[in-house]
Amino acid sequence: MLSNIFPTLWICLFFVLAIFGAGSAQDSDRRITLERAKKEGELIWYTTAGLQDSKPMADEFQKTYPFIKPSVVRAGSGVLVNKILNEARAQKVFFDVFNTNHENILPLKKRGLIGRYASPEAKFYDDDLKDNEGYWHSAYVVPWFLGYNTRMVKKDEVPKSYAELLYPKWKGRKIALGADNGALILSGLIKLWGREKALGYFRQLAAQEPAIQAGSPSNRIQLLAAGEFPITLAAGNTLQTFVSRGARFDWVALEPVFVQVNTIMIAAQAPHPNAARLFIDFALSRKGQEMVRAFHRVPGRTGVDAVPPRMFKGFKRHVQDSEALENAEGTTKLYNEIFNIR
Questions:
Q1: Helix-, strand-, coil-residue percentages of the chain, each rounded to 5
Q2: Phi/psi at 213 (nearest 5 deg)?
Q3: CB-side exposure of 60: number of CA atoms within 13 Å?
Q4: Nearest to 207 by CA among 161, 155, 168
Q5: Residue among 183, 111, 218 at smallest CA distance from 328
Q6: DSSP state of 166
Q7: pTM across the whole model
């Protein structure tokens, strides 16, 4: 009997020591990162987030790590990507952390300008919301829903699938689509349905004579609220912001829901790499994601629900992947050809 007990005890002891050793190693790494970050004393954050969001995040980070002074450089994604590329040509690196839409990763990654960092917070994110090589994590997500004007469309008449958008009742500028972002859904359907079926569907959708709207999604949603058209496909967080303000419309999730990711990543040659790691950890932490939620964004972290939770729960989703990003230029060209966008 004793001979059966001892092997079991040794196995239990082995696992206890292994867990304790892993925890001790992580604690040691954390201490080293903190000490080095204290010496660096600074963080440069390039971000596409508005100052109304990015400044409170930077301020809260500094409260947590008072020995690090964060500087926020805010601009549009194209401006910041070009800034980073121009700095690289001059053989200079000024940024530590960059967060931007997922599609902007490729030109930076191909030139070796972003590095790999596997945050310990990554375990709280699903696999489709982080890079398996550690090049990026999800700062927040942007699910796309079908918004509808509640004065023009009864709840039981709202389309429940992409196929229902092809019903005759929605023909003639009844559906509003973005001129610059509908390729997200086209690329997703190509991946899920196959190229021939997806292109056939979009050609049928074009035959519905939708209203193609240029400009920001918020402008399109304002027109939806004003009754310019009854339904639109748009970014969920923007739709929900207007709903929360009392606008006379609502939204439904057509499955699969197509999701864009706003990513956060570290510079390959970050001037302050340890401060950068601490900032990424903070942005991905429960506290950081609760701040993201307060900014009317949709957090990706498990256990931090959006407001309302149905914005990222209760539906099948398809997150824009690396294959879609590689083919983005060609997909956008196809989308423009189908809808005759010049």
A1: 50, 20, 30
A2: -110, 125
A3: 14
A4: 168
A5: 183
A6: G
A7: 0.89
**pLDDT tens-digit series, residues 258-304:** 999 999 999 999 999 999 999 999 999 999 999 999 999 999 999 99
C-beta of residue 158 within 8 angstroms of C-beta of residue 146? yes
Q: Detail the DSSP E strand segments found in 150-300.
A: 175-178, 211-213, 231-235, 249-252, 257-266
Q: pLDDT (tens digit, 9 = 90+) per residue, 196-217?
A: 999 999 999 999 999 998 878 8
Asked, as a colleague might, if the bond just before 120 is cis with ω within 30 of 0, I would say no
- CA dist., res. 218 & res. 234, Å (int): 9
- Phi first, then psi, for residue 282 (nearest 5°) are -65, -45
Cα(first)–Cα(last) distance of the chain, in Å?
A: 82
Percent of the chain residues past pLDDT 90, beyond the cut:
80
DSSP 284-319: HSHHHHHHHHHTT-B--STT---SSGGGSSSS-EEE
- 256: preceding bond cis by omega (within 30 degrees): yes
Rounded CA-CA distance 233/250 in Å is 12
Residues in CB range of 176: below 8 A, 6 or more apart: 210, 211, 212, 213, 220, 223, 224, 228, 229, 231, 232, 233
